[in-house]
Design a protein that fits this description.
Low-confidence stretches: none
Keywords: Membrane, Transmembrane, Transmembrane helix
Helix content: over 70%
Number of strands: 0
Radius of gyration: 28 Å
Mean pLDDT: 88
Structural class: mainly alpha
Shape: rod-shaped
Distance between the termini: 52 Å
């Protein structure tokens, strides 16, 4: 073969390899960025769900302390949030959320409390019904943050 052909083929092969390397690098980088963005968006959605659950549970618990009711319609939004958690959250988060629901229902079924009774109830830790849920959420979100990196 003529040396000119060898030089031309070597240059063509070098250009092809360089182009493929550039393409592969861009593809891998883009894929990693998309995966990171997807996980971060999922984490943000979970944070919003957990925050909404805490807000709704707190509202219902406050209502349950001063009202007795057999009407479960007030609990529907909370049950829907737990259903969403069952789809995407860690099992420990779901279990803690169910215990929060149980606490709220038991509080609705219990006697109404006066302000003085609520103060005593709070001192005895009765208002800390969201602690376990919050801890489970924190662990779940931390595990997802570690997986993002």
């Amino acid at each position: 073969m003529d040396s000119a052909y060898v030089s031309a083929l070597a240059a063509l092969a070098g250009a092809t390899i360089g182009g493929l390397t550039s393409f592969a690098t861009s593809w891998v980088t883009q894929r990693a960025q998309l995966r990171h963005a997807h996980r971060e968006a999922e984490r943000t959605r979970l944070e919003a769900l957990y925050s909404d659950f805490i807000t709704e549970a707190s509202r219902l618990f406050g209502d349950a302390l001063t009202h007795q009711t057999d009407d479960v319609t007030a609990l529907v939004r909370l049950y829907a949030m737990v259903g969403r958690m069952r789809l995407i959250s860690d099992r420990a988060v779901v279990d803690a959320a169910v215990r929060v629901e149980d606490t709220i229902i038991a509080t609705y079924l219990g006697p109404n409390r006066t302000l003085h009774e609520m103060m005593d109830y709070a001192r005895k830790g009765g208002m800390d019904f969201l602690n376990e849920f919050g801890e489970a959420c924190r662990k779940d979100l931390a595990a997802r943050a570690t997986a993002v990196r």
